[in-house]
Amino acid sequence: MADSLGKINNIVVLMMENRSFDHLLGFFRPESGVTESLSGTETVPFDPQDPNSRSLPVTRDAAYVGDFNLDPNEDDTFVDPSHEVPSVHNQLFRGSPDGKPFNEGFVWDYSQQKKNTVLHSGNILKCYAPDSLPVVTALAREFAICDHWHASIPGPTWPNRLFVHAATSAGHVDNQFHEDDYNIDTIYDRLDQKGQSWKIYFHDLPQSLALVHLQRDFIIKNKFRLFQDFLEDARQGKLPAYSFIEPRYTDFLFLKANDQHPPHNVALGEHLIADVYEAVRRSPQWPQTLLVILWDEHGGTYDHVPPPLAENPDGKVSVNPAFNFDLLGVRVPALIVSPYVKRGAIDSRVYDHTSLLATVEKRFGLGSLTNRDRAANTFEGLLNLDVPRDDTPTSLNRPVDETAQKDHDRSMTRLAQMTSEMVRASLDAGQFAKGSASEFQLSLVKLTKHLLIKGETAVAQTLRLSQWSDMEHDAAHQIRHFASKLFRHLF
């Protein structure tokens, strides 16, 4: 079997938000082979600790938006599925007869969320039919799917995203900014040491800025670029050795979030995935490119496969809540895309986000960051063709969703700049987020309060630091305003 990892000179990573494997791909059926997917007959008890509890079916009727709203037409009725460590523990272990995870506490845990109802809690079991996700489904058929890729911890976004950059979260398991503890080595440090180029491409604010090593002025100016720069770099064949893409995390006027974080429109995330794929597929660098599409964690959505044990990365543990970093998180989708990947490949080895780092380290001869990536499985075995395929599609069918199509088209034409006329028109049309900001969005606002803007006056800084809002639109405004000042050379 060939190993063509050495033929890969450009690795591109797109990490989306908060969806489990079963939620997006549980009903996907490959043309050949078998995935660890749903049979279609699964049921989950409302409360696995109650032997008389009624069971609810896992279904394939998930909608692009609205499933997590008590009233699908009202943004302010959104009930966020919890993905904090204690809640994920309930999802995995509640009612376990032998103390091992068996994934039957999802409905009960969702029922405990503020404002939720018993009837609505069953919506956590809604999954997508393959036809609803034409982009993800096409890539799964055309390239490789990893059906045992797990989040790095059974917890929320921040620690899992830190693991994909640094193979550790420095002992933290929450969506908070711990500046002193985030002064840790990253994969970008390793790439710099080997003289390998890299860039982080973003839409509104890169969460990766939480890492102190990425806050150095010379790195920020040269390494962080807007998403349209990614499209242009791909078009010109100027992608670096390693590219990491962050989606838009917030709704701000016509710039709608495309991260797929509930309750954002999943169809708009499909457009982003298609944009990234088509950009690298049409790039002159395609014959030497590996594209990895991941989701950071499951976001509380259902998955039936219990996570395995894990290697503690650095000896650090969390005290409150207690967690020893010895268990992987819930399964998430992972698509491995390259002309060196066989069509319809299925990989059932156990991976987590540090498997990406381990593979990058192997390709470029980098040293390991922690015990976790040192022990992680690598996936170069999927690059098992001697010569690149010439039958990969150059474009993908997009979701049939008029709202997502309009939002996508507007964002692509107005991504970098807003005029007062555009803002006024959007306000007059009511095109702004009305709901409460999520915990993750508020954590990004908090991140902006910890970072300094070069040349900012004392008065401007005081005004910026004093701003706060629990509403998504206002939080998005603060995030975008900060980014436009910090990255003023980009906006």
Features:
491 residues, alpha/beta, Alkaline Phosphatase, subunit A, 2 domains, 8-stranded mixed sheet, 12 strands, globular
Task: Describe the protein.
The chain is α/β, with parallel strands linked by helices and 491 residues long. It has 2 domains: 5-27 and 129-382, 3-Layer(aba) Sandwich (Alkaline Phosphatase, subunit A), CATH 3.40.720.10; 43-125, no CATH class. Helices cover 31% and strands 9% of the residues. It has 16 helices and 12 strands. The chain has an 8-stranded mixed beta sheet with strand order 7-6-8-1-9-10-4-11, with helices on both faces. The chain has a two-stranded antiparallel ribbon with strand order 2-3. Strand 6, helix 7 and strand 7 (224-226) form a beta-alpha-beta unit. Helix 8 runs parallel beside helix 9, helix 9 packs across helix 12 (402-413) and helix 14 (439-450) packs parallel to helix 16 (472-486). The N and C termini lie far apart (47 Å). The mean pLDDT is 92.
